[in-house]
Amino acid sequence: MADSVALFTSIGLSEQKAKETLKNEALSSALKDAVVQAQKLLGSTNIDKGTGTLLYSMASRLRDTRRLAFLTEHIAKRKITTDLQLSAALDYVKSHPQDPMDQKAFETACGVGVVVTPEQIEDAVELIIRKHKQQLLAERYRFNMGILMGEARAALKWADGKMVKNEVDMQVLHHLGPKTEADLEKKPKKEEEKQNNTLMEQLRGEALKFHKPGENYKTEGYVVTPNTMNLLKQHLEITGGQVRTRFPPEPNGILHIGHAKAINFNFGYAKANNGICFLRYDDTNPEKEEEKYFTAIKDMVEWLGYTPYAITHASDNFQCLYELAVELIRRGHAYICHQRGEELKGHNAPPSPWRDRPIEESLVLFERMKNGMFAEGEATLRMKMVMEDGKMDPVAYRIKYTPHHRSGDAWCIYPTYDYTHCLCDSIEHITHSLCTKEFQARRSSYFWLCNALDVYCPVQWEYGRLNLTYTVVSKRKIIKLVETGTVRDWDDPRLFTLTALRRRGFPPQAINNFCARVGVTVAQTTMEPHLLEACVREVLNDTAPRIMAVLEPLKVTITNLPANAQVQATYLLTICTIRCTGVMEKGYKRLTPDQSVGLRHAGYIISVQRVIKDGSGKVVELEVTCASSDSAEKPKAFIHWVSQPLKCEVRLYERLFLHKNPEDSAEVPGGFLSDINPNSLQVVESALVDRSVSKAKVFDKFQFERVGYFSVDPDSTADKMVFNRTVTLKEDPGKI
């Protein structure tokens, strides 16, 4: 094992990734063969990280291992040098399984030997900028440069991405010149509308790459059968050529920030192209589903501003899915198997001894499964196919004697994701099945099952996941955080579930704006939390009312307040409370015994006359005199204060974890639970806030002047308000 780990780390894999790879025997065997062959071809054991990454990606994605040596040679000899070329190569070998391989056609399809010159890049970018020149000059650096990059990459398929970006940047600079102060100013209001338009533009741009409804067969890798065109014709008659997408979460947990991208992509793509989007619950595992998750998912979709065309459930189709499973058996594509669950785990399960059992026998046994005549785990229905990751004969149905939240005890057999997903897409006539990149390995099985049953086959398109550093989002790990008391629940404001972000005070439009800035990327994206927080500040700066609040109050008595002060300014009374941070510190520019300050917005300047301390020497009160700001010398600073305030609790949040990647054992050897930031929550129990917030509702948001942005927490009561700090006023440079 140590030799294999050393071999894999030599091509750039982390030790953790190398060990994970060894758990998959098929993948590790293919990767070993590829690395050893590449070393022989290169005449060296030193393989650069770029080549190593391509070898790993090829080994993990290649279904037909007969082509392993062929593809390895192209990678080692640097004929294939980018992931884009590799994807084209994998698609080609998958769609051309016959021998011998037409090497010339293969290399043409993969862009081997294609050289895109700087002049060609310059000319193509110039044409694209000319197309958008009027809008670019009008919006300057507020223009969505992603549109230019998207069109440039489409026009220059095999060009170096960095060269394309540099050319776009250079030509934009030529037309606009350096950024001016106006370009750097805070964006104007109606930011939400502008950012949503930006996302819509990106998604309309993606429509140029995606197939048109009814033209599924034009998609690379799509399998065409003798009945495909007839099925597509029927599909168009039903949909009228309308774009149809779906957001299909499992109702066994709370949505997180990564789901926000999926929601924006699925609902946004449909909206941008005048289509419809379904919210479909993938409720095929009754053991893990709870009603609270159904409700929370719908609430979060609507909170982000989207309305589903219809809310559906995979369970709506249980009868239809069962009948299709019977048909799959009749066609000889599925069989009843009695291997136990532990035998089927991993990618190297032994072949089933029941794979070739007679069709009639499997039909009878499947009926017996449905009628509850087998124990759990005693029988499964398996499909006769090999998935792209090498997994053989995935399970289509398994037995579970758990009542379903909707169908009760009507069923004791439940379909799996691999069986259900594509068929529900087909039943709902989805045009674009948008899913994250890890489902790419299931694309061929998606096409296979629809074609095996001779039903309408949608097209699966993959996009990159959105991840954040300094957090965990897996259900299992969040449950562990809750069970250990590290966080209170799924909506603890230190988490990045959508319910937690709402509780912390993040506006939904800020999350949508963040997704727009991340963009519609194919590659996985890992972002820093401060980039999301910047989007939050932009929205709250325009929308949050400003009020006075003091987190560390100090009593200040004005001894000479004019008798008519209450008439002139009813909010300024004899007893005022102001911020004490920094008081008495040498060199501090605010209130000291030798330095006066102004009361913010009050029209008075105060000067310290007497400092009152308690028995321990702590300052507990100041007696001051005041003078009108019209008659006194202008002070060096103004201090914020509250009068007749409300006492409240304020919760100050910091990052939950100390390291960027708490799940990485190389970075955090003790595991994510050992990486908890002890200062992730600070509770201020005696903060004071202006009385004007007394009628605020849960989730109302405010800017506490000079302190930060805060939101009313659901724990608030009629007797005591609780505020969560959403974000600080300015980004902490130490967090970047």
From TrEMBL:
Residues 638-713 form the tRNA synthetases class I (E and Q) anti-codon binding domain. Keywords: Aminoacyl-tRNA synthetase, ATP-binding, Ligase, Nucleotide-binding, Protein biosynthesis. The keyword Oxidoreductase does not apply. It holds the Pfam family tRNA-synt_1c. GO terms for biological process: glutaminyl-tRNA aminoacylation. It catalyses: tRNA(Gln) + L-glutamine + ATP = L-glutaminyl-tRNA(Gln) + AMP + diphosphate. Residues 3-161, 164-233 form the Glutaminyl-tRNA synthetase class Ib non-specific RNA-binding domain. Residues 242-541 form the Glutamyl/glutaminyl-tRNA synthetase class Ib catalytic domain. Its EC number is 6.1.1.18. GO terms for molecular function: ATP binding; glutamine-tRNA ligase activity. GO terms for cellular component: aminoacyl-tRNA synthetase multienzyme complex; cytosol. InterPro entries: aa-tRNA-synth_I_CS, Gln-tRNA-synth, Gln-tRNA-synth_Ib_RNA-bd_2, Gln-tRNA-synth_Ib_RNA-bd_N, Gln-tRNA-synth_Ib_RNA-bd_N_1, Gln-tRNA-synth_Ib_RNA-bd_N_2, Gln/Glu-tRNA_Ligase, Glu/Gln-tRNA-synth. CDD domains: GlnRS_core. NCBIfam families: glnS (TIGR00440). Belongs to the class-I aminoacyl-tRNA synthetase family. PANTHER family: GLUTAMINE--TRNA LIGASE (PTHR43097:SF4), GLUTAMINE-TRNA LIGASE (PTHR43097). This is glutamine--tRNA ligase.
